[in-house]
Specification:
By secondary structure, the protein is α/β, with parallel strands linked by helices. It has two domains: about 15-185 and about 305-390, Aminopeptidase, CATH 3.40.630; about 185-295, Alpha-Beta Plaits (2-Layer Sandwich), CATH 3.30.70. It is built from ten helices and 16 strands. It has helices at about 15-25, 35-45, 105-125, 145-150, 210-220, 225-230, 265-285, 305-320, 340, 375-390; strands spanning about 55, 60-65, 75-80, 130-135, 160-170, 175, 180-185, 185-195, 200, 235-245, 250, 255-265, 290-295, 300-305, 325, 345-350. It starts with 13 loop residues before the first helix and ends with a helix.
Length: about 400
């Protein structure tokens, strides 16, 4: 494998081992809260390294502690392990063997990189102080998420700093995005049920059409962002499902809508939910229909700590070169790394891993999504350097 970095200070076989681990995980994906075999594999691999205290805070998560016995800080490093309910179309020789389940977001690479970092740091334990803690998290993709559950089971107790990394297809190989401040959005979910009066499609005057009313709701909810949110703030309202009717000549009784709201600011988050219901209520009442509106708050936004981010910027620049560091705007995806940041200051970075399949770099959560395995060396080296630097004996 061709290196994209200066001569790495890693064991000669570390990168190839990380690639092998990733391919095993990619071929054997498991959905959120069902990562039983994945967690077993991670636990076995960690125990085989020696010198690590390995526990299972939940049935499908793993924590490994590299306790040096010398006084010093505690650095936690996190990788998520779950896959998505997507049928893979990459054509890779190590493609998913689980029907309808795929690692379409890079979590297989995250897990393999953190295993590689653990392996390297075990070999360096005599040069470390304090503790390095490896968090292998379940269920990042499904609310309420595995991070909150791990925190409640003590996985972050005593941690003084936490870092995480995400392989990122929108960034070119060799780049590392280090956002300052807000990183990801609060991913909230909503459900709307509109109840009208069914009837014959040829006599709409005798019915209360929930499809026509729902269409107005969809259109008007888009104005919440374009006309109700400060242009300097960030918000997204997306209706992603609209279900109604069973026949071409029947006006149904009910229309059901589902979607997501993404925000970075807590005030905007609260205001949008209230304004949504005001719009829905006004439109349905105007047309003689009724509604039910359910709004569920998702993860907190990930917000990088200023001091830790400055430190991580230096780590990345020293490992990969100053030109590799890419400032990033927030992305409106959800990420429950924020739960770990409630317990200790932390920073989340993005490792460029763009790899085209069939002539295109496909986005995360796409059936043809893949990552360039050469990016794994970047991830391992960043983790190792961060731990070596933060847990250096004073």
């Amino acid at each position: 494998m061709t290196s994209i970095l200066p001569a790495p200070a890693l064991a000669p076989d570390t990168v190839s081992q990380v690639v092998a681990w990733r391919r095993h995980l990619h071929a054997n994906p498991e959905l959120s809260f069902h990562e039983t075999e994945t967690a077993d594999f991670v636990e076995r691999t960690l125990r085989g390294m020696g010198a690590l205290e390995v526990t299972r805070p939940t049935a499908t998560s793993v924590v490994a502690r590299l306790v040096t016995g010398r006084p010093g800080p505690v650095l936690a490093m996190r990788a998520d392990m779950d896959a998505l309910p997507i049928t893979e179309e990459t054509g890779l020789p190590f493609a998913s063997t689980a029907r309808g389940v795929m690692h379409a977001c890079g979590h297989d690479g995250h897990t393999a990189m953190l295993l590689g970092a653990a392996r390297e740091l075990v070999a360096r334990r005599d040069r470390l102080a304090g503790e390095v803690r490896f968090l292998f998290q379940h269920a990042e993709e499904v609310f309420p998420g595995g991070a909150e559950e791990m925190v409640s089971r003590g996985a972050m107790d005593g941690v003084s700093r936490v870092i995480g990394a995400h392989l990122w297809a929108p960034l070119a190989l060799g780049q590392v995005g280090v956002p300052s401040g807000a990183v990801t959005a609060a991913p909230d979910t909503f459900w709307i049920t509109i109840r009208g009066k069914g009837g014959h499609a040829a006599m709409p005057q005798l019915a209360v059409d929930p499809v026509a009313i729902g269409a107005q709701v969809v259109t008007n909810l888009q104005h919440l962002v374009s006309r109700g949110v400060d242009p300097l703030d960030s918000a997204v309202v997306s209706i992603t499902q609209f279900h109604a009717g069973t026949a071409h000549n029947v006006i149904p009784e009910v229309a059901e809508l589902n979607g997501t709201v993404r925000t970075l600011d807590a005030t905007v988050r609260t205001e949008i939910a209230a304004r949504m219901e005001r719009v829905i209520r006004g439109i349905t009442e105007a047309h003689g229909a009724t509604y039910e509106f359910t709004y569920e708050r998702g993860y907190r936004p990930v917000v990088n700590d200023e001091r830790v981010t400055a430190w991580m910027t230096e780590v990345v620049a020293d490992v990969c070169g100053a030109d590799a560091v890419v400032p990033m705007h927030p992305v409106m995806v959800g990420e429950d790394f924020s739960a770990f940041q409630q317990k200790a200051p932390g920073t989340f970075v993005f490792i460029g891993a763009a790899r085209p399949i069939d002539g295109a770099v496909h986005p995360h959560h796409h059936p043809k999504f893949d990552v360039d395995e050469r990016a794994f060396e970047t991830g391992v080296r960043v983790f190792v350097e961060a731990a070596t630097r933060y847990c250096a004996p004073r």
